[in-house]
Design a protein that fits this description.
Blueprint: H1 2-48, H2 50-68, H3 72-92, E1 346-348, E2 352-355, H4 373-385, E3 391-397, H5 404-424, E4 432-438, H6 449-455, E5 457-463
Parallel strand pairs: 3-4
Antiparallel strand pairs: 1-2, 2-5, 3-5
Helix pairs in contact: 1-2, 1-3, 2-3, 4-5
């Protein structure tokens, strides 16, 4: 009995030792297969055969789980399944990855020489001798050559005219290729031997005198253009510097509605009402050059002398530019933003200075009454302030009472009295003029007292 028990214990120990050895081997196999799948994944299996790679990894996971439970039979089953998938991943891991076997930057699918490093311009093929012809097309791949000889050296050509010296009659003079004896290799500067070099000869293959540009003298229409180059040999050219070389007359060079004989601009199209000349507007201001006084400077269209074509940045010439002038047509001062200075007793207008009161004089005399001094001082200030007033005319007027001679003399003296007052208050003498009109310019009837009072007056007229 004791011997049987001992035997059983020995058998169990042996089985356990066998199981331990088998488990270690299976664990190493699983680890090895993991490493192999990882290598395939790095090569691109996850992109080229993702399904097979995923299955292989799953089988290994199942094998590991079965090993942990001691189910060796299932471990073998999953390892066999994984190896089948691993075979596919190993074979096709990089099947979808573009390949460049010779590492020349040209993918094998586009590389005409996939096993030899080459150049992109030659589809991956090399050009060993550097003559611009790839080795696969070069009959002499180790020696520089020319395309015409399939990469082999050309025959010697001393003058570089592409005619080999051995058949070139002039090996040191280039052929002038002009379709005249080009095959001999010699230049022919005067093909027809008429003394006129081909470069100046209009008929290089027909003899002619230099006076006829190397062409035979044959001119039916007598226009000086040889018939050989005359497109209208029966009609004489109208020599007018317009396409004269073709030998055809051009009665209307610019193709407008006027014949050249009546066209003042025969080379430029223009309307009939402008004598065939184009309506030019150099500065693009809409004012034709023919009437534009400032052709190179555009008019500033502002309804002030726009027709002359010249810009007027200061219409009223008061020294304040229109862009800043609140009264661009009426002269003013800078302090009022271009508008006339405001006064209590006068109003400055473009053509005159209006008075809100009369200028009073002592009866029958040319002596100014003191009560008019304040108003006349305002007139003096206005004339001094407005620099655009070139001249102010002081006009003296009387009523019809008394003789005309007396009234003319009195009005002149009163006008001069006002002039002197203005000069005394700072107005330059050369900017003032005094005129006496006597009774000649009434503004009301002299039959009434009120009318006569209106006619006795002083007016200030402005000359810009």
């Amino acid at each position: 009995m004791k011997k049987l028990t001992l035997l059983i214990l020995l058998l169990l120990t042996a089985l356990m030792m066998v199981g331990c050895i088998t488990g270690k081997k299976l664990k190493q196999q699983i680890k090895h297969e993991h490493a192999r799948l990882n290598a395939d994944e790095k090569r691109g299996a996850d992109k080229c055969v993702p399904v097979e790679l995923a299955k292989a990894y799953s089988y290994l996971d199942f094998a590991q789980a079965s090993l942990d439970m001691g189910d060796y039979r299932r471990v073998y089953h999953y390892l066999n399944a994984e190896k089948a998938m691993a075979h596919i991943t190993a074979e096709k891991a990089d099947s979808c990855i573009p390949k460049d076997a010779d590492k020349d930057g040209v993918l094998d699918k586009n590389d005409a020489c996939p096993t030899k490093p080459g150049l992109k311009q030659f589809a991956g093929c090399p050009d060993t001798d550097g003559d611009g012809i790839s080795d696969k097309d070069d009959k002499c791949p180790l020696v520089k050559g020319v395309f015409e000889r399939k990469g082999c050296p050309a025959d010697k050509d001393s003058d570089g005219d592409n005619i080999p010296d051995k058949i070139d009659h002039c090996p040191f003079d280039k052929e002038d290729f002009d379709k005249f004896k080009d095959e001999d290799g010699c230049p022919d500067p005067d093909n027809d031997m008429d003394g006129v070099l081909d470069a100046q000869d209009l008929c290089p293959l027909k003899k002619g005198p230099a006076t006829n540009q190397g062409c035979p003298v044959n001119d039916k229409d007598g226009d000086g253009i040889p018939d050989e180059i005359d497109k209208c040999p029966e009609q004489p050219e109208d020599i007018d510097t317009f396409e004269d070389q073709d030998g055809c007359p051009d009665p209307n060079n610019d193709g407008d509605e006027l014949l050249d004989v009546n066209d003042k601009c025969p080379l430029d199209k223009g309307p009939t009402d402008n004598y065939g000349c184009p309506i030019l507007d150099t500065d693009g201001d809409g004012v034709p050059d023919i009437v534009d006084k400032c052709k190179m400077v555009p008019e500033d269209i502002d309804k002030f002398e726009d027709e002359d074509g010249c810009p007027d940045p200061d219409n009223d010439k008061d020294g304040v530019l229109d862009v800043d002038d609140k009264c661009p047509i009426t002269p003013g001062v800078k302090e009022e933003k271009g508008c006339p200075k405001k006064y209590k007793l006068i109003v400055v207008k473009a053509a005159k200075i209006e008075l809100k009161q009369k200028v009073f004089f002592k009866t029958g005399k040319a002596v100014i009454n003191a009560k008019s001094f304040k108003m006349l001082k305002e007139v003096a200030d206005a004339v001094k302030s407005i620099k655009t007033i070139k001249k102010i005319v002081v006009e003296g007027h009387t009523d019809g009472t008394g003789s005309r001679k007396y009234n003319l003399r009195l009005s002149q003296k009163r006008a001069e009295a006002v002039l002197n007052f203005l000069v005394k208050h700072g107005v330059s003498r050369d900017r003032i003029e005094a005129k006496g009109y006597g009774p000649d310019k009434p503004i009301a009837s002299n039959r009434t007292r009120a009318g006569r009072s209106k006619n006795r007056r002083v007016e200030f007229k402005i000359e810009q």
